[in-house]
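Chapter review. Work through the record for ABC transporter ATP-binding protein before attempting the end-of-chapter questions.
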Amino acid sequence: MTTPEPGGGPLLSATGLHIAFPGRRGAPTARAVDGVDLDIKGGEIVALVGESGCGKTTLARSLLGLVPPTSGAVTFAGRPLDYAGRALKAYRKRVQLVLQDPSGSLNPRHTVYEAVAEGLRIHGYAGDERAAVAEALSRAGLRPPDRFFLRYPHELSGGQRQRVVIAGALVLEPELIVADEPVASLDASVRGEILALLLRLRDELGLSALVVTHDLGLAWNIADRVAVMYLGRIVETGTVEEVLTAPQHPYTQALLSVLPEAPGDPVVLTGEPPDPSRIPGGCRFHARCQVLASGEAERAGVAGRCRGEDLAVLSGRGETQVACHWAAAGGAP
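Structure tokens for ABC transporter ATP-binding protein:
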């Protein structure tokens, strides 16, 4: 099975994905992912952006095969994801996870060599293990690699530890990595280095990536395409330039308004995101929407629809799309 070429069909695709968790002691079911279509092409970096609790990590874990969907499907290279043990193990060799906290994802008792070689041993690698580990460390920017073989995580800087985690993913030669807040725990001086590394891996290896983040500035620096998630659904998607320079959804506008370089005053959203076990009717953002609160939606004639009419799930394809009655009515700039 070959990886789809950039610009061709999707490498990874989610269609109609729903993930629900039963409540305890009769509490309502939490709809963590509530209808998502998302495509990632070969050689493409997609940023999945949103506040904490919006369902980003649950969606990412489902795409990795760690959380089976309640309904809907995940396909990889045109084939449905098989959750049987052997098939899932083979899939996880091709799709690797990079966690946000390198200190928490590295065993403090294992050397760098052992940490990177672990995946090879799990998957029964029959080649030259030492050469594979050295190549992965080198690709991750730890050179000369043999200088790091016998070092322990506590002997490394935060950036070096994150590079070890990335090397542990690269050693299996995956086609896609899922990076969950890959630079959130790093100093600002190191973040740019790790982002540059991910871009270089995309360019040199044709590696695809889903980068999960709350940081739109990070998305601007690394992504080809961005998907903005709110309360279990993607509410706006498109190329990073289109979405971040001309956002149409009020939620995206609010997220962008707090960036240091953003023009005008920050938009302060009232309250916390609603409970996923009690998703409101109509647009799921309407209770916090600054456009509705200011009367702009009323003037555009869509306030009633905002409060009472649900919006369709956006397609996972690459074109710019927005789930917003006000934007659809021409209210967005």
